[in-house]
Fold these 3 entries.
Entry 1:
Amino acid sequence: MPTIRDVAKHAGVAPITVSRVINNAEYVSQKTRARVQASIKELGYVPNMLGLSLRFKQTMTLALVITDITNPFWTTVARGVEDVAQSQGYSVILCNTDESEEKQEQYLNMLLRRRIDGILLVPACSSPKAVHMIQRQGIPLVILDRSIPDTEVDLVTADSEAGVYQLIQHLLSLGHMRITMLTGPKTVSTAVARANGYRRALADAGLPESSARIYWGSYTQEGGYQMTRQALQETPRPTALFAANNFVAVGMLQALREEGLRIPDDVAIATIDDIPSSPIIEPFVTTATQPAREMGQQATELLLGRVTGSLTDAIQHIVLPTKLTFRASSGQKAGS
């Protein structure tokens, strides 16, 4: 493996000159800089970034801590993060917590030991413990998607509560009075917010509070499947089901297929975010889609502003709108 001395000998300069070129110091002539860069390329020299980070107290690395990398929503968020980070010369470490607070803590401890420059965190739960741990170390932090009570921290999210409200209004306008909601755990802010949007839509339609049917579970396909099985035992059976995220919707569709129920003839459905594409999923699902890539981009821009010190304003809460797409799954008119 070539060393900095090998590069210096090849370029005919002192090792300190090579170091100055690597660190982009101004006091190196363009001619010398070009010769050193050519030697670096020809020899395949890779600078020791650990040493540089210790010297300049900056690693040029961000971390994205998400809950489920298998969900296309989060892969799209990650793409938005990478777009902005790479354009500014930063690398991104991706950590997947599987909605586990214990796994989240393990990752955060590792990242803090590595002196990461900044962290984008999708919290596994609503506890402020993780936020306080990061803030005590002075590491810039932006929370994505899920709010955490009792914290002063930058947040980028989508207004999924409003999206749910509009979707439930749509189902109500089609005549559905028995709409059951399948959502995530009570410890996750988005699950609670989406349930609030559901309840508010029913209340504004003049329906009694007792008409609300909410199943709390996990944001997974298995969670959606199990909650749907329970919901189908209701008497009378719901005429519409609402899934609080796309993976819940996939599990919901599996349970409906097993029961031989037709969509939307027997039951209408709607969800937050598009489900993964598949030739077996018909009809297309009515959704309120969150701007995943834009969320990742804006969160990274905000984080880099904190990292570089170019942004010193007060804590920001950025809320992006959802996009409604009405498709065949919600049907035209409710069954009797």
Note: Residues 84 and 301 are 7 Å apart (CA to CA).
Entry 2:
Amino acid sequence: MSVVGRFAPSPSGRMHLGNLACSLLAWLSAKSAGGRIVLRIEDLDAERCPRVYADALEQDLAWLGLHWDEGGSTGGAHGPYYQSERAEIYLQAFEKLQAMGLVYPCFCSRSQLHAASAPHRSDGQVVYQGTCRGMSAQQVADRIAKTGRRPAMRLQVPDEVLGYTDGHLGAYSEHLPTECGDFILRRGDGVFAYQLAVVVDDAAMGVTQVVRGEDLASSTPRQLLLYRLLGLPAPEFIHLPLLLAPDGRRLSKRDGDVSLENLRARYTAGEVVGKLAFAYGLNPSCEPRTPESLLADFSWEKVPKGDICLPEGLF
């Protein structure tokens, strides 16, 4: 089977080095196997993700030499490639899950969940305990009338351990009720959740290999459950270590010094790629490189498994 990888950026701001690392390794992983790359714009929350940022993402990827084979503004056979334009497709999958009797309304706010004595994951996320799971149709109607707001919709998870073998980090599993909990499929404002959208999109776009940051590894059991329930083929998952600032902070789009906007003003594309490849063990030095020049020697075995702190002064 031909490998189909993907870029799936969320255009809530300019890309930072962590986003770039994910894009570079996704491109190298697919292209080194003779595969293809799809560009999908994950702008589910259109207010937070204006099209101007999506356009800038395309320009940044092209500047770096990370060219894609279909998707984005250039289109292709599996469009639309903007999640904000795919709500009807998500609705079909959502209704299929509803017909199975697995979806229920939830009125709990985020602040209520964090204030509750519910268990928390190691990353601080609340494991939902099914507070609203047993509400009757009348109770739901009364709550809507009282609060004036629509509920979110959650998927009830089965009592099982669901695991997979990561292409880089190895075995991972979760006991769904106690380590994952019932999770949201659609927000109260009607926006479909990331978990449902990426499963539907990756299957529809023929993606066979998902490369993303290690912080999303815990999303995989939820997504594998959705693949199974919806009767869709699951891709291979490969999670790469997170890139940290020299002081150990997680990089974010608020860190302007490592945003592509500022990096483009200070370095050539080859310098950015070469330095980043060096940080991930794919370049013996910081010398400038093109993505194509890294293909022949690319191997996941060279990539560290633990988080990577950027050396002081590298960027």
Note: Residues 153 and 172 are 27 Å apart (CA to CA).
Entry 3:
Amino acid sequence: MSSAIPAVTIVTTVAAIIAIALFLAGYIKGFTASVDEHALPQSEVQDRTSQHLIWPICLAVVAAGVVIALLGVSPLFIVLAPFLSIASAAVIGFLFFIEPHLG
């Protein structure tokens, strides 16, 4: 038996580590921004609604549903499923960084 780690495991692990770092950095940035904004007078607080992100969010939900529905169809989707979770965490972390520029 070979004791080598499969390439997909290495790629998944590296992608997960990057997503974790991005998510944590974004979460810390968002938390500190929220604390700073809470100290501001109500008149200085900006309303940052992101209604223009509705369609990308809907498409991401549909894509996730398609991948989940197709898990039994092909082994490719079984490999793709963890990357769906990893990408979701990375995008959430990334959104904390671009949130001040939205709206």
Note: The CA atoms of residues 26 and 97 lie 6 Å apart.
